TrEMBL record:
Coiled coil: none annotated. PANTHER family: ALCOHOL DEHYDROGENASE. This is Oxidoreductase. Pfam families: adh_short. It comes from Xylaria flabelliformis. Belongs to the short-chain dehydrogenases/reductases (SDR) family. It comes from the Eukaryota.
Length: 260
């Protein structure tokens, strides 16, 4: 796996915390054994990204990874459009895009959800993911044999099993599933792999955000649960990216054993 990933350039959205952050570390650790790779870490919180970049280099060694932190709000089409163009030359030849950025704005019944929250969830989780994909696909499609590269979309169990109070978030994650499936079919004759990973409950900042920052409420709901860690998902992301180039791990559902 290290040899397959070595030398690649990996872009991760939402890399400033949780699953995205762990995924950055996991790519760096895995590829370090074979000479390393390049990471482009994106999110809105640039200070967190810079700290993560420093920590990754400190862990795997300067010669084994190159990390570029880039402030990017995926919900802003103009920022996404300019993203590839502004990359330094040595990071432009992207091989892997991990579309991980996502959020939930509160859990409420549909009639109570503010229009602003609906728009924020769709603009980030769905339109942001689509815009990132469209920005990077031309790089993949310029390559021989119809193109090559990996698009790994982070969906959710919520996209498969909607729940009361989660209507908008669930709808965004269902939209990701549809988009991912259609895109995979459109690119079937190429070497571009379009893959989706759907986590169940993972212990991240997300768990608290879901309850508008009310940690006590989040703790009460999650009491007795043994959630996955961000590293559990990161290992799967790197696993699918590290398969032989004609192996497509198209659709992965991963949840803690207590979660029915
Ligand atoms: P976190 O809240 O820890 O991470 C979310 C990441 O998304 C942050 O890095 C955040 O960075 C980034 N982000 C949010 N909005 C934007 C934006 N507009 N532009 C760019 N980046 C943005 O949660 P997780 O790690 O848990 O979430 C990662 C993904 O996993 C999400 O898509 C989520 O839906 C999904 N997921 C999570 C589950 C869980 O139980 N935790 C379960 C199933 C799926 P910043 O604020 O710096 O911009």
């Amino acid at each position: 796996v290290a040899k397959r990933l070595a030398g690649k350039t990996v872009v991760i959205t939402g890399a400033s915390s949780g699953i995205g952050r762990s995924t950055a570390f996991e790519f760096a650790r895995t590829a370090a054994a074979a000479g390393g790779l390049k990471l482009v870490l994106t999110a809105r919180r640039i200070d967190s990204l810079k700290q993560i970049a420093t920590d990754i280099v400190a862990e795997v060694g300067e010669g084994n990874v190159k990390v570029l932190p880039v402030q990017l709000d995926v919900s802003k089409p103009d920022e996404v459009r300019g993203f590839v163009e502004k990359l330094p030359e040595e990071f432009k030849e992207i091989d892997v895009l991990v579309n991980n950025a996502g959020l939930v704005k509160g859990v409420a019944r549909a009639p109570q959800i503010a229009e602003e929250d609906v728009n924020t969830m769709f603009n980030t989780n769905v339109t942001g993911l689509i815009n990132m994909t469209q920005a990077i696909l031309p790089i993949f499609l310029r390559r021989p044999n119809g193109g090559s590269g990996d698009i790994i979309n982070i969906g959710s169990v919520a996209g498969r099993e909607p729940y009361a109070g989660g209507s908008i978030y669930c709808a965004t994650k269902a939209a990701i599933r549809s988009f991912t499936d259609s895109l995979r079919q459109e690119l079937i004759a190429s070497r571009v792999r379009v893959m989706e990973i759907d986590p169940g409950q993972v212990e991240t900042e997300f768990s608290v955000v879901r309850f508008y920052g009310d940690k006590a409420k989040a703790d009460a709901v999650y009491a007795g649960c043994d959630p996955l860690t961000p590293d559990d998902i990161a290992e799967v992301v790197v696993f699918v990216a590290g398969r032989r180039e004609n192996v497509v791990v198209a659709d992965t559902l991963i949840f803690p054993s207590h979660q029915a």
